Amino acid sequence: MDYRLPLVAGILGLVAVAWIGLSGSGSDAAATSPYDTLETAPWGSALWSTTDLSSAAECNSTKIVHSADFIEKARNGYTLAEVDKSANEVSALLKKSISDRLSDFTDTSAFLGAVSGKAVFVSPDGSDEWSGGLASPNDQADDGPFFTLRHAVDFARKKGRIRLIFVREGTYFVGAPLRLNRSNNELVIAAYPGETPVLSGGEIIEKLEPLGKGVMGANLGTPTGLDLIIDGVRTHVAQSPPVKSSDRRRTGWHIVREAGEEGSKKNRFQLPGGAPKPSELSDQALIQVLARKRWTDHFSAIDPELTKGRNVVLKDAARYAIKDGATVRILNDPSFLDKSGGFAWDPGGAQLLVASSALQEDSEVIVPRFGPVIDVAGAKDVAILGLTIAHVPYDQSAIQLSDATRTTIAYNTFTNVGTGVKVSESTSSSIIGNRLEHLGKTGVQFNPGSRRFYVAGNMFSSIGEVEVDGAGIWAIGLHDSVIAHNEFYNASRYGISLKDAGNTPNTNNLIEFNRLIRTNMQTSDTGAIEMLGRSAENTRTIIRQNFIYDTGGLATDKNGKWLERYQSSGIYLDDSTSGVTVNHNYMGRVGWGGVHVHGGDDVTITNNIAILDTERGKFLRLQDWRDQETGMLERISISKNIVYGTKRIGPYWDFNRGGEPRVDRNLLYNVSKYRVKAMPEYGVVAHAGDQESIVANPGFRNVKASDFRLTDASPAQQLGIEDLEWTLMGAGPFADVPNTYRCAATVGLD
User: Fold this and answer.
1) Residue 731's closest CA among 539, 544, 526, 484?
2) For residue 641, what are the CA distances in angstroms to 178, 542, 588?
3) In this predicted structure, what is the pLDDT of residue 293?
4) Which residues contact 263 (CB under 8 A, 6 or more apart)?
5) What single DSSP character describes residue 560?
6) How far apart are CA 591 and CA 452, in angstroms?
7) How sure is the predictor about 629, in pLDDT bands with cuts at 50, 70 and 90?
8) How many Å apart are CA 750 and CA 63, to the nearest integer?
9) Closest CA relative to residue 588, chosen from 524, 518, 520
């Protein structure tokens, strides 16, 4: 049975925009491209817009090909060319259809017979007093499935021989984290064939009463936070100033000034005239702060004892100084409901308040209460397949892995959660074929100590709806892993970010064949794919064959003027990130740079295609890091790249001191060759590159249609430049993998 929707319907669902909004454009707006509406060129891979989501790789965690195997060679002194060759071989295996390696349980009776005695079932029509061995209640109504998933897990743990739990259609308010430990080894929790059960970390609000003045209310025992889900959509908390639908990116923020004579501080600022008086705010009100470059946001209550007039003092200091022109908004005060709508918590009446305009007559209202919904700690060979997990607060995760081994998280949908999957100190696992959408912060987060993960075939959209400093995939201290064939759309900050703040290096990772469109919509000093490398360790990382379009970039200056397409890059190697090969990537509509190298060594940038549409949007930015003894742009090579200006751009690079990179054999159009003037004060002598480069039209098939495949007559051949593997970028190659339940049954019966 094929559950795939028509492409157009899938696209419409995909571009549903979060309340933070992604509209608005600056003065540097480029000509309309097919990617502006998320349509693909006819030669590109189709957007993976299925409801089935059964795709990616083998679901049996003991059989999955972990393509991180190839990286072992890097540790043993193999050359980069040998590692790359091995990676290509593994990549070819991943692209091969696996349908012939999975049992075909398309016949329901055959399926039920195959799992008899080996599985239990959970259903809203069940009872925890029954055996759990039947998929539906029997005719006598005295036996059938279990009623709660928690009871099914406990039953499987006690019986031992039960390795499969199938969950029937319905919404399950699980009430508290479902914890799986070593006694749950080899357990599979899967959706019943063809059904989409929902596990909720929320509390459903049974009834809202009219309170007058366009407000509905419900008495609750516990305060709400910054999340409320109405009819399946995250509703924004009441705020000042309100967000305007005409420009959701740049409205909804107060422009503030430094408070006092001591200069900028991390915990104080001055609200502008017209903003609410701090003394009149609710005790539950929160301030969300973003510094001018909007690196990361901070939430804090006001300190009422120290706050005087409009000079606000926060209880908790922000990470960065709050200087003139920074932006803040005030959240969760009931007095804002009449202007901004949404919801708020009234501490005086212990009530949830909701603007009537946000509700329909029979609206379903759910307060996210806890996370994780599923907590896997110390277990091995656990698989979670085909479920929908929803209603988790913005600062918590839906699934959490810690000290877990050979875990498979596949074909699930995560919606209206904070973070989809959070991983700590786990190994040899796969996160494949999931859909992660309307994320309060991040899709998949790796904390230090994890290795040998395969993250592939996932769809990430509307990332950072509440806390903007998030990513589709965020990793700290991740090793020997592969991030491949994922799609990222509409991110407040990063698509993929690998962070090393000085003691958490990420090493031996492969990032390939991902599609990243509209990232960095709320932040600057960022990249669609970003690495931070303050340990200055050789990361032995390959970033290749990724499709990057529209890297955003948003900031403010000291006067509060909005800066568009500001300090954002396609691939950003920040703060001494070293030992990276960047090859065969496409970059279009970049903010400040296609590739930005900030103080790293041993970086190779080759065979990429960059389309530049503004003078500011360089292909290459090289910047040393003068505060460090390492990371001085040593052994940097830039060759065989195609740099195409849609108009006369001038220099395609921006060079800021340090090193003498090797720049040559590039194909250039409407841009100037590489040349650096002498800067004796920084020890830089005059040098030039591009001696053997070609200045010519690269011969793309159809620039107006954004078809940048190379024709047979392209001069790129003279330089040995290869065309990109366009049709393999994104999740499209996984579309032929069998349906979820076939995979689930196979896992459980092995």
Assistant:
1) 484
2) 50, 16, 14
3) 95
4) none
5) -
6) 33
7) low
8) 10
9) 518
Residues 6+ away with beta carbon under 8 Å from 192: 121, 135, 166, 167, 168, 169, 741
Which residue bears the tokens 């459980």? 748
Interacting residues of 514 by C-beta distance below 8 A, sequence separation 6+: 483, 484, 485, 486, 487, 488, 495, 496, 529, 546, 547, 729, 730
395-431 pLDDT tens trace: 999 999 999 998 888 888 999 999 999 999 999 888 8
The count of C-alpha atoms lying within 13 angstroms of the C-alpha of 225, restricted to the half-sphere facing its C-beta, is: 22
- Hey, is 303 helix, strand or coil? coil
Whether cis (ω within 30° of 0) applies to the bond prior to 241 is yes
470-480 pLDDT, tens digit per residue, is: 999 999 999 98
Q: What is the DSSP string of 357-406?
A: GG--TT--EEEE--S-SEEEES-BS-EEES-EEE---TTSEEEEEES-BS
Residue written as token pair 């495949």 = 709
Query: Do residues 488 and 471 make contact, with C-beta atoms less than 8 angstroms apart?
Result: no
Q: What is the pLDDT of residue 193?
A: 77
**Cβ atoms within 10 A of the Cβ of 301, count?**
15
Joined tokens for residue 124: 């809203």
Helix-then-strand count for the chain, H and E: 7, 62
pLDDT at 224 over 50: yes
